Amino acid sequence: xxxxxxxxxEVIDEYRYELIxxxxxxxxxxxxxxxxxxxxxxxxxxxxxxxxxxNAFRFCDEFIGTRYLSVSLxxxxxxxxxxxxxxxxxxxxxxxxxxxxSEKKSFKTKLGEVFEKYIEWCAxxxxxxxxxxETHTRVALKYxxxxxxxxxxxxxxxxxxxxxxxxxxxxxxxxRYKAVLRNIYRFLHNSQITKGDLSMFILREPQTxxxxxxxxxxxxEEVRNLISSVDRSTSSGKRDYLILLLASEYGMRASDIxxxxxxxxxxxxxxxxxxxxxxxxxISYPLIPSIGNAIIDYLKYGRPPGGDDVIxxxxxxxxxxxxxxxxxxxxxxxxxxxxxxxPNWREKKHGxxxxxxxxxxxxxxxxxxxxxxxxxxxxxxxxxxxxxLNIDIERLRKCSLQIPVxxxxxxxxxxxxxxxxxxxx
Length: 425
Hints:
Layout: E1 6-7, H1 8-21, H2 26-45, E2 50-51, H3 53-64, H4 75-92, H5 111-124, H6 130-149, H7 159-165, H8 171-190, H9 220-228, H10 235-249, H11 254-259, E3 265-266, E4 271-275, E5 282-286, H12 289-301, H13 326-340, H14 352-365, H15 370-377, H16 393-398, H17 409-412, H18 420-423
Antiparallel strand pairs: 1-2, 3-4, 4-5
Helix pairs in contact: 1-2, 1-4, 2-4, 3-4, 5-6, 6-8, 9-10, 9-13, 10-12, 10-14, 14-15
Protein name: Site-specific integrase
Family: Belongs to the 'phage' integrase family.
Pfam family, one: Phage_integrase
């Protein structure tokens, strides 16, 4: 339990020390300290001294206008909301919130009456992952609000309504939203809630070329420099070194790195096996010596005792021993890039996923086959692996065609005045 009667100055001081302890940069600390002075000034104007949840939420409601994140808030209001909620987290003894929570939404149409059964059907029959189920929930809530604001019902579905609902969305979101709505309306039809299958009114998005967007990758030498930049003499350095190895040697996603536990390691068979967080597809890696030794070194000489049942944990004072967040792993990898000073790293993607892409790219350069790379990456569909074929420049050069010599007078005299008869000779 947190202490219930703390003075505002005491809580703000604890908050500032926490920012320093977490290595927030000087500019951010100065910005947040300025907001703290604004908060303290409001407390004084209201004649308040004690900091508690009631006063904190009163500040949000009266000074900001809301205690939840909203698109209508200005940048200053969003920062102020974040700071007061971070201070509230310190007061409670909890971890900082990564983002201020948005206002909780609820269903207003008949969709809310059946949505729980729909999610259960998706989980049991379609075997959708928890992340995908969250996406379905977000889309359904947005669609529900769309119908409610226009006085429409589920049965009023039509092609113009569906197209208007997604008209402002990106192409990827349009495809995603339509897939969710198709599922929902097929479920409603199969459950005899709607007359007929209204999913037939949802048009498929036209197929368009996605261009030649290339994946961010780093060479094997750059990855080695990145890993060697970590100071392994400290406890947090041993953790960061392990994170970089898992991302670069296995191509593991941040969500899998943060969830890795001793129960996933078979020391007798020298394997690491688990179901991937994103896809829930099982994957197994050979426990190579560099990673095995890094795990042992961290567990024996770096990891704080106790905490969550995972290998990689936090080292900051408030949440020592707790599971690292995915954004925390991103920050660790980004700090390593900064320390290694790899050329142009700021202009490129430099999170853990860039190391995953580099892992695939470097396998390709070594001559690994398409299927092998797909298996090593743990892709649920081999089509996903095709992205990496675009970055094998050396092999693509072998597929290039020589431009034929053109003998037309038209091309030989570009920029000159040519007689019509000559242009077709």
